[in-house]
């Protein structure tokens, strides 16, 4: 593993560090836009007083904290970065490949590097079954990794293309605390609220930090913590547009042979294209808000 100097210096002095994933850049946003967002994300973390650590696998090496040229590479479609979940890390390392890390693999690498807070867009979850199927058997490794890794993930819930109710149930079964940030409802990524309530709510970074510290240091459970932060209200996607895009995207996947890890990128692409970019603005806004909140929480945790 290679940790950037700025990141290891911050960790050594106990300063706030926020882990960031690369899959949302390489596979979640279109070329060009992704590079601008990569910089905006790092700037948002710095503005809130923490050091950003974007994580990816480069030439088979796990890298924590990327330079500008490395971010260029992650965001370049011609570099053909793989999408690496946790199980893919061994093969990618052994075979010397380049890859973007998901929430699952980013969480594992961040934790191994000593980073405790991670800000991102949307968590992977339980996929809905295709028409005629009983189960999709497609449950993101993000959930199991969060259950087994003491890391804080700040996100805007899961996309409505997933089975939100089932995802929330799995988080409960796996003993992952779900904390709504200034909300009583689990967010649905493009929309501020799903129909489902969150078990806990906090209204300040300080109380989020207190919950996290108690879970980590005084509670007997060794899981991560999910902080669910709804997209800022002015950037929420219009409800009617959202429902139309969702129905179209689901039909598109159902009538194709897209499966597994390719489903999310294909659905996101549909949302971005068919909304004329409106969903991209929402996506960008929520990521920026989440990484800023992650940084505020990381700062608050330094005095816990
Ligand atoms: N949700 C998004 N954009 C993304 C992802 C999720 O809105 O880019 C990525 C994240 O990296 C997440 C991963 O960890 O997709 C989940 O993929 P899968 O469902 O294949 O586990
Ligand atoms: Mn999956």
List keywords for this structure.
304 residues; 5-stranded parallel sheet; alpha/beta; 2 domains; Indigoidine synthase fold; 12 helices; binds manganese (II) ion
Task: Describe what you observe in this structure.
- The chain has 304 residues and is an alpha/beta fold.
- The longest helix is centred in the C-terminal third of the chain and has 25 residues, at 278-302.
- Strands 1, 2, 3, 4, 5 and 6 form a six-stranded mixed beta sheet that branches.
- The model has no long low-confidence stretch (mean pLDDT 96).
- It has twelve helices and eleven strands.
- The protein has two domains: 1-115, Indigoidine synthase domain (Indigoidine synthase fold), CATH 3.40.1790.10; 119-304, Indigoidine synthase domain (Indigoidine synthase fold), CATH 3.40.1790.
- Bound molecules: pseudouridine-5'-monophosphate and manganese (II) ion.
- Residues 21, 23-24, 27-28, 85, 102-103, 121-122, 124, 140-142, 159, 261, 264, 268 line the site of pseudouridine-5'-monophosphate (PSU).
Structural class designation: alpha/beta
Q: How many separate structural domains? A: 2
Order of secondary-structure elements: EHEHHEEHEHEHEHEHEEHEHHH
CATH class of the largest domain: Alpha Beta
